[in-house]
Amino acid sequence: MTHADDRAVHVLVYGSCVARDTMEFAEPAGTSLRxxxxxxxxxxxxxxxxxxxxxxxxxxxxxxxxxIRADFAGSLFDRLESLAPEIDVLLWDLADERHGVYRFADxxxxxxxxxxxxxxxxxDMFAEAEHIPLGSAEHFALWRDRVAxxxxxxxxxxxxxxxxxxxxxxxxxxxxxxxxxWSMGVRAKDANERYEPYYALLRERGFRMVELxxxxxxxxxxxxxxxxxxxxxxxxxxxVLRQLREVHGFEGLVEATQ
Length: 258
Fold this sequence. Notes:
Blueprint: E1 9-14, H1 17-24, E2 31-37, H2 62-73, H3 76-83, E3 89-93, E4 101-103, E5 109-111, H4 114-117, H5 123-128, E6 130-132, H6 137-156, E7 163-167, H7 188-204, E8 208-211, H8 234-246
Helix pairs in contact: 1-8, 6-7
């Protein structure tokens, strides 16, 4: 796809730290981030849980509030439709699936994101909701159905061949050779095992993928967002960019010069 305004690669990020941090290593002059859909499980897409959301939230940033409200609105498909004409690449990571979802009594679903669970206004509501964790049979069944719907929507919008899923496992070790920290009670090895069937499903359905083996990813204590098993060394993000260029043909996604 070409754009009248520039020659930059127009990118939509759906996910969180993996895809978004990769974009930080791309040459700014050659890329344009057109949208960022974060803190939203695929299971919550199209599920309108806004009636459960209080008007006032104790948020620390406008971005945080936007992401929470978008998740409760299940706005993914609407955003895709509005942005599809200007998107060259949809970078999709599954980082925001890591803590599962909450299902309310009326059947609507929201993501169990770090932002949502830190909102005191939502404590009582989540205490009564059903937590469906990543890796459970029910979570996978719900996610599998949503993947089929997601694929249909991507194809109808002409985005399927421009979508790349990022399979970057959680880092088991840090650059110092120490075990990476657990994330909300989950260690890297267990998280990677839970994710395996999800990535296998994407392969079966023919999604483009960037894949890195677990033995080449390390958690970086110097990462700008702090130490976590999904906050990697610069080499990881550069390898993602290399595969996007050399495997998937998005030549404009080059590394920023230091």
